């Protein structure tokens, strides 16, 4: 297996599977922050110490398998081109923060792209695991198993009173961030999402865009995650998040029903206009494409557009990103060139679906 394995397909293998409430919850993620007890944290560590971490993880885990996760590929960040780096971010296999590191940072990724372990990001290790749909508790159980597997060779920095010790104080305790990626077009269309965000924040959760902190909610895709890591168990944190997510699912479904009852023709017009833009445009910017893809996905979920896979949203939302477009073209593109290629790839993908 090589880097090319992760670069060529816009959609990760696990994303092709259905999960609970997949019409609204695109994915569930558990991320664990861990540090090695005997080595200074990345923010203050010298290069030779960070090199020790990188070499340890490469030696013990490269090309290994664990349970159903096979052939972990070890990828040093410094060996990536700028475009390859960006594609891995767009596929959520590495964080934007890790992409900025070049010396002793790396990532180790399972063959099915469900597990990635970032090395020398903000912490020595950032373990993340994805599942389709709303599967937070299942993802947590699998993340614990991977965490235990790593701990067989790594002595974690841990305090009996504080829990896992991390670079950022906001991660101390469980060191866990649980998050879900949700498609909420009806709540966005009715304006309800803007009223809900402050209430969600008051519950110790945070709402972000598709690529996490500082990113925009493109295509009505929102990431909901916990802010509190200290003073609660991992199970309690996941339970609190799951409770809010279930409420958002109910609100989104009610909003969809309301729009279907009160404005069915206007909704169909919006959906089919968006489909037409995607199917026939010769130039399209990423924001317009994201909004049109969101509308088409809503049409698929509501049965207005038939014989088209729901996974088309997952695939196209990566396919239209700047990094993937340039990887496909095998060269750096201007903004205008990306807009032309984006329209062409979307047309081809829809024709293939038909």
Automatic annotation (TrEMBL):
A motif (RDXXRA motif of the pArg binding pocket involved in allosteric regulation) lies at residues 338-343. Keywords: Allosteric enzyme, ATP-binding, Kinase, Nucleotide-binding, Transferase. The keyword Iron does not apply. It catalyses: L-arginyl-[protein] + ATP = N(omega)-phospho-L-arginyl-[protein] + ADP + H(+). The keyword Transferase applies. ATP binds at residues 27-31, 92, 126, 177-181, 208-213. Signal peptide: none annotated. Appears to be allosterically activated by the binding of pArg-containing polypeptides to the pArg-binding pocket localized in the C-terminal domain of McsB. InterPro entries: Arg_Kinase, ATP-guanido_PTrfase, ATP-guanido_PTrfase_AS, ATP-guanido_PTrfase_cat, Gln_synth/guanido_kin_cat_dom. Its EC number is 2.7.14.1. Residues 24-255 form the Phosphagen kinase C-terminal domain. CDD domains: bacterial_phosphagen_kinase. Belongs to the ATP:guanido phosphotransferase family. HAMAP family: Prot_Arg_kinase. Catalyzes the specific phosphorylation of arginine residues in a large number of proteins. Is part of the bacterial stress response system. Protein arginine phosphorylation has a physiologically important role and is involved in the regulation of many critical cellular processes, such as protein homeostasis, motility, competence, and stringent and stress responses, by regulating gene expression and protein activity. NCBIfam families: PRK01059.1-4, PRK01059.1-5. This is Protein-arginine kinase. It comes from Oceanobacillus caeni.
